[in-house]
Design brief:
The protein has 13 helices and nine strands. The chain is an alpha/beta fold and 347 residues long. It folds into two domains: 25-228, Spore Coat Polysaccharide Biosynthesis Protein SpsA, Chain A (Alpha-Beta Complex), CATH 3.90.550.10; 251-340, no CATH class. It is globular, with a radius of gyration of 19 Å.
Length: 347
């Protein structure tokens, strides 16, 4: 796998508004291959946990760590036989489980996966190569949604590298990603474990932690995660899960992100304005609590202030439909992608 310039293109001149590529925007895998831990967090369900574990243990990671919400002797024995290390956590939400897992993980790079998603072939190898660059503290990859059978990985695409303290690079496409698409350097997250334990979700908040670290992020558009589109209101995604609970997945996380924005200065503060605003709006609009009407208005004003006009993009809007008609959502998403030629997140 080869690195590319930070503007995501290896040929042709920079487009309007792009900064000229610099030599230090190229991925530099000069370090030793890091030890890899795959963390699979089971929040309120276990139906697809065996599949998730199998997808991880087949990829050569030195450690596969399952963080579960309850003991199940028969299932735990199966997961152990598959090669996983099972840890039962009393943490209620995803952020706490991920924090607890990172605290006990033995890998230098931690690959995250939700219990109903899968690692597609090559993800651990891709991340191992990316984290050989000692500057990289956070990476994400593309995903392919599925409803029944996990898909094959997407075609390999160039990795984009971003220095998180520089506004121009962050405005060129860097954004929060799905938890199941994230890999982090353990040493970067360790100082944040106390914060992470208090937060409901891990994807947007860990992204903000990486931005504040003022190090480097790698965006690998190759689809290396299978994102399972299960229906809400079923055994897979209960109506009272954290993703549908009234206000559960936003209130504390929004306050935390805005506090981080207020605490930063200089280039990182300028960067966090649009990044935090996007993350906040994403959380607010995925929350069913009517009381968040005021939040929506406040965030709309914040977005206007930093020049972001369309927080509810087509992919975000389709996320609402995923829970109720997964196959239709995938079909509409494919039609939209074919019309606009957009191929960043999904392969």
């Amino acid at each position: 796998m080869t690195g590319t310039q930070g503007n995501g293109s290896s040929t042709g001149p920079p487009g309007p508004g792009d900064s000229p590529p610099r030599s230090d925007e190229v991925l530099q895998p000069t370090g030793a291959p890091p030890r890899m831990t795959v963390v699979i967090a089971a929040h309120t369900r276990t139906q697809y946990l065996r599949r998730a574990v199998s997808s991880a243990t087949s990829q050569g990671a030195e450690e596969v760590l399952v963080v579960k919400f309850a003991h199940d002797p028969e299932l735990d024995a199966e997961l152990t036989a598959l090669g996983a290390r099972v840890h039962v956590s009393a943490e209620r939400f995803q952020g706490g489980k991920v924090a607890e897992a990172i605290g006990i993980a033995t890998g230098e790079a931690v690959v995250l996966l939700d219990d109903d998603d899968v690692l597609l072939e090559g993800r651990v190898a891709h991340m191992r190569e990316i984290f050989r660059d000692p500057r990289v503290v956070f990476a994400s990859n593309g995903y392919r949604p599925f409803t029944d059978t996990p898909p094959p990985p997407g075609p390999s695409r160039p990795v984009r590298l971003f220095k998180t303290g520089e506004v121009d690079q962050l405005r060129r496409g860097l954004k929060p990603m799905l938890t199941s698409c994230i890999t982090v350097r353990r040493s970067m997250i360790l100082p944040w474990l106390g914060d992470l334990r208090r937060l409901v979700i891990a994807d947007h908040t860990m992204f903000i932690m990486a931005v504040i670290a003022r190090r480097w992020m790698a965006m690998d558009p190759t689809a290396l995660t299978g994102y399972h589109l299960g229906a809400y209101g079923t055994d897979l995604r209960p109506k009272q899960s954290i993703w549908r609970g009234s206000g559960a997945n936003a209130r504390g996380d929004i306050a935390w992100m805005l506090d981080q924005l207020d605490a930063q200065t200089g280039a990182v503060h300028d960067t966090l304005n649009p990044v935090v605003a996007k993350a906040v709006v994403h959380l607010v609009f995925l929350t069913a609590d009517p009381a968040f009407g005021n939040y929506r208005r406040e965030m709309r004003a914040l977005l206007d202030g930093v020049g972001i006009r369309r927080p509810l993009t087509v992919p975000t809007t389709l996320m609402f439909l995923y829970g109720f008609a997964p196959r239709l959502a995938v079909r509409l998403n494919n039609v939209w992608r074919s019309l606009v030629g957009f191929h960043h997140n999904q392969g």
